[in-house]
Write a structure and sequence with these properties.
alpha/beta, six-stranded parallel sheet, 14 helices, about 35% helix, binds adenosine-5'-triphosphate
């Protein structure tokens, strides 16, 4: 994939030009207040660079999922305020239900070099998610240059992430955040320093069919844990009790086991498993557990985490790796008693010298929550987008950007 060769902000000439930047400002809000501003902070390097280089910086993003057009609770107004504090300069909020209506146009008209305007939530326009040209043209009409820095939305071909580039006359580029994602995920998948170990977990095999198949081709060793492991164990003919199993995907898992063998890849499954009578309810409730070998799960018991021998096996497998990609927790990590497998894997990754890349919402959250974030080479900001990247898909939001 040519994604590694995309223009980035450093390649652009922006002095005096209107630069439309698609950011990911989809921040959590409570009673109109931002509860976590990580996504705004993450966008600062790109914004600062464009200001420094004398661009007229026009920012846009979606926020939440407004259903029927504009809704106050999904307004980007609080983001403008916070961003202004973080930048230490005025961010003009172009409140405009049309996103690019009279207000936004007037705000852009008044801009001097280095000024910043934030447009209203792109999803206030129904055309956005349908990638209809009308809105793409409107967005392009107020800009000369386009930068996409919203990796979390790059797997969606929307007006603001892809369609707009059809009508932008000048250059297009990726921002720093997007560039970093491409560098880490792209290199891991396309050009990894070997041995390359991929670790997959999470709930369901069905969610990650293509990721399993693609990573098996790219990596040297594929470790499978979490809920998805039980469908693989079933495919090996084991009794898995009442564990999460997708009967429709047992054959698929058999094919993957065969594929691994044919390609000479190691596919490592849990050798033991932490079991309980039933799923914890509520999810973090105290729970009585025991550990049994993976081929000895009693018929009335459920596997909810990898076992202690597996923790060691997985940690050992990671030790000799030079590149590790991890997506999906090893067990029901929301419960402290069932988080041990996920913690063990996070710890193993924190201790290696390998390039470690965490892709995915839950595993990223687990690593942060467990305090290992600064020990990882890269934590992806896009759950869905990073998964599609690992599937080997071309992400529309990256694909539309001009090559260097
Ligand atoms: P995302 O898709 O958001 O990037 P992810 O890929 O990291 O997240 P998911 O596939 O969403 O992970 O799965 C995470 C969920 O899987 C967690 O809520 C966890 O409790 C659940 N899970 C893990 N192991 C098991 C298990 N053995 N049985 C049932 N559920 C499990």
């Amino acid at each position: 994939m040519s994604a590694l060769n995309k223009k980035n902000v450093e390649d652009l000439q922006v002095k005096g030009k209107r630069v439309l930047v698609r950011c990911d400002f989809n921040v959590p809000l409570k009673d109109g207040k931002i509860t976590n501003d990580n996504r705004i902070t993450a966008a600062l390097p790109t914004i600062k660079k464009l200001i420094e280089n004398g661009g007229k910086v026009i920012l846009c993003s979606h926020l939440g999922k407004p259903k029927n057009g504009p809704e106050d609770k999904f307004s980007l107004a609080p983001v403008a305020e916070r961003l202004s504090e973080l930048l230490g300069k005025e961010v003009v909020f172009a409140k405009d239900n049309e996103v690019v209506g009279a207000n936004a146009k007037a705000a852009v008209e008044k801009m001097n070099d280095g000024d910043v305007v934030l447009l209203e939530n792109t999803r206030f326009r129904a055309e956005e998610t349908k990638n209809i040209d009308d809105f793409s043209k409107d967005l392009a009409s107020i800009a000369d240059v386009y930068v996409n820095d919203a990796f979390g939305s790059a797997h969606r071909a929307h007006c603001s992430t892809a369609g707009v580039t059809k009508f932008i006359k000048g250059e297009t580029a990726v921002g720093y955040l997007m560039n970093k994602e491409i560098e880490y995920l792209g290199n891991a998948v396309e050009n990894p320093v070997r041995p390359f170990v991929a670790i997959l977990g999470g709930a369901k095999v069905a969610d990650k069919l293509n990721v399993i198949s693609n990573l098996l081709e790219k990596c040297d060793t594929l470790i499978i844990g979490g809920g998805m492991a039980y469908t693989f164990l079933k495919a090996k003919g084991y009794e898995v009790g009442t564990s999460l199993v997708d009967m429709e995907k047992v054959d698929y898992c058999k094919q993957m086991l065969e594929k691994a063998e044919k390609l000479g890849k190691k596919l490592v499954l849990p050798v033991d498993t932490t079991i309980a009578k039933s799923f914890p309810d509520p999810i973090d409730a105290p729970i009585e557990v025991s550990v049994v070998d993976s081929n000895a799960i009693p018929a009335d018991m459920m596997g909810l985490d990898i076992g202690t021998k597996t923790q060691e096996l997985f940690a050992d497998t990671v030790k000799s790796a030079k590149t590790v990609v991890w997506n999906g927790p090893m067990g029901v990590f929301e419960n402290p008693i069932l988080a041990k497998g996920t913690i063990a894997v996070a710890k193993a990754l924190a201790e290696t010298d390998a390039t470690t890349i965490i892709g995915g919402g839950d595993s990223a959250a687990a690593v942060v929550q467990l305090g290992f974030a600064d020990k990882m080479s890269h934590i992806s900001t896009g759950g869905g987008a990073s998964l599609e990247y690992l599937e080997g898909k071309v992400l529309p939001g990256i694909d539309v950007i001009q090559d260097k």
